[in-house]
């Protein structure tokens, strides 16, 4: 009887703390949303969303041109390129760890992945400045470019993606391992049709987490992309992202200039919310399968 009472108390306490956590998260997101929206109103009212998102104007605060399109395109291109480099490689590494790496070595590799994932982003920025940027400069100057940002961001997000893919594959493997053995199928032959292809919605869902991580990165892109406000014509040209623009100019921005920076933060918040909804939708599809 006492055990049942304790179990009920534990369950009620756990749900109460979960409810409090959800309320705190919702209030925090609401406050951030309100802060960004209120501080964006000056730019929206005086400049207008049409000019803030104009393809015909640039970013010249002293001349009153505050188009965010070059930085938005820079953020999207550097993030998409980084994920295009990271996702296939990380998926292959996760497959190797789960299905081919000896069980005795897997804990060591997992610990290494966790440690590397915890490294601060400035570490990757310094690494990119010392090695990646000079190497790309030998191919085509100036070195600090869209391509450099994509490579360094791909390296930065790789430990996180490997850990996520590895966890997903381990879960699916435990679920289907007995069925595969009962059918007399070699497990390696079931990797692609069963463990990968059948889990594409879940893999895309986990990839969206990585995309949200790289599109919100500030330090790395500030250090290796060149910070030129322009839509690049090639991957070897410098770019500036929304996050880097906020970090570089918020300290001295005033009036409409400052409000436009808050509006760029508002755009990032809306984008992250959209990605979160898409991830949850894909995760439900994956669970249904």
TrEMBL record:
The chain crosses the membrane at residues 12-36, 76-101, 108-132, 144-165, 260-282. Residues 72-279 form the ABC transmembrane type-1 domain. One of its GO terms (biological process) is transmembrane transport. It is a multi-pass membrane protein. Keywords: Cell membrane, Membrane, Phosphate transport, Transmembrane, Transmembrane helix, Transport. PROSITE patterns: ABC_TM1. The keyword DNA damage does not apply. It is found in: Cell membrane. One of its GO terms (cellular component) is plasma membrane. Belongs to the binding-protein-dependent transport system permease family. CysTW subfamily. PANTHER family: PHOSPHATE TRANSPORT SYSTEM PERMEASE PROTEIN PST, PHOSPHATE TRANSPORT SYSTEM PERMEASE PROTEIN PSTC. This is Phosphate ABC transporter permease subunit PstC. The lineage of its organism: Bacteria, Pseudomonadati, Pseudomonadota, Gammaproteobacteria, Alteromonadales.
């Amino acid at each position: 009887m006492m055990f049942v009472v304790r179990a009920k108390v534990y369950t009620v306490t756990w749900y109460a703390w979960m409810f409090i956590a959800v309320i705190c998260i919702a209030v925090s997101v609401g406050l951030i949303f309100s802060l960004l929206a209120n501080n964006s109103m000056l730019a929206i009212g005086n400049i207008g969303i049409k000019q803030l998102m104009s393809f015909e104007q640039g970013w010249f605060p002293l001349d009153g041109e505050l188009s965010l399109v070059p930085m938005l395109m820079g953020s999207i291109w550097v993030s998409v390129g980084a994920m295009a480099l990271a996702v296939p490689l990380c998926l292959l590494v996760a497959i190797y760890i789960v299905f081919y790496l000896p069980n005795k070595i897997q804990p060591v590799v997992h610990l290494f992945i966790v440690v590397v994932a915890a490294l601060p982003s400035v570490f990757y920025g310094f690494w990119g400045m010392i090695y990646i940027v000079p190497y790309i400069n030998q191919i085509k100057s100036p070195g600090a470019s869209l391509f450099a940002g994509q490579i360094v961001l791909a390296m930065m997000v790789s430990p996180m993606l490997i850990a996520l893919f590895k966890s997903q594959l381990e879960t699916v493997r435990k679920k289907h391992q007995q069925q595969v053995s009962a059918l007399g199928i070699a497990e390696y032959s079931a990797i692609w049709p069963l463990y990968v292809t059948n889990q594409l919605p879940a893999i895309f869902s986990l990839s969206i987490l990585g995309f949200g991580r790289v599109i919100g990165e500030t330090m790395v892109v500030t250090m290796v992309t060149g910070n030129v406000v322009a839509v690049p014509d090639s991957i070897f040209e410098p770019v500036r992202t929304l996050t880097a623009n906020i970090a570089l100019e918020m300290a001295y921005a005033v009036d409409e200039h400052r409000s436009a920076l808050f509006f760029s933060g508002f755009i990032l918040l809306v984008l992250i919310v959209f990605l979160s909804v898409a991830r949850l939708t894909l995760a439900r599809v994956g669970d249904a399968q």
